Amino acid sequence: EVQLVESGGGSVQAGGSLTLSCTASGFTFDDSDVGWYRQAPGNVCERVATITNDGIEYIADSVKGRFTISQDNAKKTVYLQMNTLKPEDTAVYYCATPGPIIPRDTCSDEYNDWGQGTQVTVSS
Hints:
Blueprint: E1 3-7, E2 10-13, E3 18-25, E4 34-39, E5 46-51, E6 57-59, E7 67-72, E8 77-82, E9 91-97, E10 113-114, E11 118-123
Parallel strand pairs: 2-11
Antiparallel strand pairs: 1-3, 3-8, 4-5, 4-9, 5-6, 7-8, 9-10, 9-11
């Protein structure tokens, strides 16, 4: 059974930093693409950052220069380092594999595996 477990969310003030972790099990992590997605209340699910099994990264324009994605194959974990956080980064952050079609109404679908989500709240 595929499992993705996110951690590291929390509440910070604008300008602060957080590091999210997504630990995977139940599939061949080294051969898989994994990404971070987020959904704020009233908004669609959007792609934040993804990393392919070849290490190719995608970073959304809205977070470019502030967020970085990385992976540790030995730990089967993908990280999202978030710096210079803004109130508009407030959302529930999910990791998913291999790669949902985005944007979409919700951060879930039957064709991909999703974590349970972790809340990030940025106050001004």
